[in-house]
Structure formats: structure tokens, C-alpha cells
Amino acid sequence: MAGNTFGKLFRVTTFGESHGAAMGCVIDGCPAGLELSIADIETELKRRRPNSASGSRDEVDTPEILSGVFEGKTLGTPIAIVVRNTNQNSADYDALKDIYRPGHADFTWEAKYGSRDHRGGGRSSGRETLCRVAAGATAKKLLARDGINIRAWTSSIAGLKMPVPGEDGFIFDEIERNPLRVPADAQEVMTKIEALRKEGDSAGGIISCQITGVPVGLGEPVFDKLDARLAAAILSIGACKGIEFGAGFAAAAMTGSENNAADNSGGILGGISTGQEIFFNAAFKPTPSIGKPQKTKDKDGNMREIEIKGRHDVCIVPRAVPVVEAMAALVLADFMLLQRAARLQPG
Question: At what angle do helices 317-339 and 38-48 cross, to 10 degrees?
């Protein structure tokens, strides 16, 4: 199956199904000599795990490095990372074997391939993102050597907007202190999320991402613009439905003088980084697996009413924060390596 490999020089291939034996990734193109440990990967994977605001499937997600690292440093050879699946409840999905869940990829996946793994969505499950986070941990380590830092947070959730950087109430340190990863007091949002949980419903939201320390010149015009590759990376996350850089869609209502007067580009012009911070927002849809009765069709085209059982997030946005960071890191790591080949250095 095509579409499982991402990147040009820093290449990542992910593998595994939600209820299979394991999931993981192979990173090819990471330079030798980078310090990398299990702890580096585990730290990021823990951020992706369910918390008190999700109530979904909980697994320890202990990573194993099978190759590419020796005595704590990368060898320049393919790095294989695997995480064993240990907490599957496949029986939760037996009743859905011949039914297409609303809002999921069940119908389209089966229409394309002629079959599908109905256990939690198989390869289309959100659990696939742990592979991206594991690979992203490696990319983050590489970028940190050049002073590049990626930080994302929940900027809107269940219709409630959070403060933005520079406004009163925005606290960076608060992001990792609360389960919703909002940069402010999370009590109001937690109350709303809990109400949705009791109703058997779900919510969506927006993740903002700020990238600092990016040098001027990253990006490969014309078709590999930095913002284009970042957009493709973020939109490849299953629940993501939109992305905007800088002022984004608001720029459409501005005049040229208004737009030029401030950095509304999000740190990218002509598809090339300007050296200023890169900023984008990504919109995520509500979790489609909900406990409320829904109408759908089965394989034979009959209308059915279902109530989806199992362990599902009320809102996936907080858990998607490290996934957004990981995908941004993979893009930037790739472009950092590509930039080294873009021009001759003074002799």
C-alpha cells in the first residue's frame, strides 16, 4: 500500500494496525552521531497517551529501538522503533464488522481495498499517530541541535477560545499542566467536556503551533514550498480538516497595506522561511465515535441504527498536540537536510 512513507532525505515509514501485534516506524536518513535514547521517545509518547479528559484506550506504549542506534548515538543507518499493542479489546468492534461507522473511513477504505480491518479502524485508527510521534521525537532532537523549538497547544476546544500569545491570560507553562493542553485556566473547558461525555457526544477544536529558531531559507519552491509541505503533513493527521498560516483566512478581508504592515505570513514567504517564528492553526473535527444513536448503512445497503461502544476520546485535540509537533518536526528536519544541498558553501 502506497502512502506510508513521508519525507525526501529524512524519510519515515510507519507500520502496524490499531489491534495488531505492534505499531512502529523506520527512519531512514537521520545523520550519524545524534544522541538518541528510549527516554527521548518515551517522553513524547507519554504526551500522546489518554488522560483524565479522554477516557479512551490506555496503553503504556513502551518503545523499543531495534536498529540504527549504538551506545546512545545514531549510526546513520535505518532506525527501527516498535511499540507492542498490549491493551486491545477487539470484541468491542465485533458488532461493527458489517456496518460503516458515521464519520469514519470504514466505507471508503473498504471501497478502495475490497476489505478492511474493522477492529478500531486498523491502519486508519488514530493510534497510528504514535508512530509519527516516535519518529518526531528523533526529528526534534535533530532540530534542537540548531536551536529550533516547536511548541503547540489547544487554542480552541468545544467552541471555547483560549487567549493567544501576547494576550492577558496566556500562560505557556500552563499547557502541559492541564489535560486539555490549554494555555490558561482549564476549568470551564473541563466542565463542558465532562458534560459532553455524559451526553455521549464529542467535540472538536483548534491547535496552534509556534516554531522558533528557524533559519532563513528553508523551503524548496516551486512545488515543495515550506508551507505546502507543512500543510500536507498536518492535514495527513486523520481528524485534521483545515490549516492556516499567520493571519490565514482573515487576510482575505484585509487591504494590502494592512496585510503588509504586520507579519501576517506566519514566517513563510514564497514558500521559504523568513527567519521569523512560524505560526499556524490546525482545525480538528469532533471525534466521530460517540455513544449517541446514529443512522448509518451496512454492507448490504440497509439503514441501521448504532450506538458505538468502546473506549473513545470525547475530544482528540489535546492528544493531537504532540502529533502536530511531530509532523512539523519531520518536515523541518527534512528541509534542514535539503538546505545543506541547496547551495555551495564558500571554499
Answer: 140
Q: From CA 10, how far away is CA 338, in angstroms rounded? A: 9
Strands (E), the chain: 5-6, 11-16, 22-28, 63-67, 69-70, 73-74, 79-84, 149-157, 160-161, 205-212, 240-245, 268-269, 272-273, 278-284, 294-297, 303-306
244, amino acid identity: E
- What pLDDT is stored for residue 52 in this prediction? 62
Nearest in space to 314 (alpha carbons), one of 205, 156, 186: 205
Cα 334 to the chain's mean position, in Å?
Answer: 17
pLDDT per residue over 55-73, tens digit each? 555 678 999 999 999 999 9
Distance CA 104, CA 81 (A): 28
pTM surpassing 0.90? yes
The whole-angstrom separation of Cα 81 and Cα 138 is 10
pLDDT tens figures, 105-153: 888 888 888 888 877 777 888 899 999 999 999 999 999 999 999 999 9
Contact 314, 253 (CB under 8 A): no
Domains and CATH numbers, the chain: 5-339 (3.60.150.10)
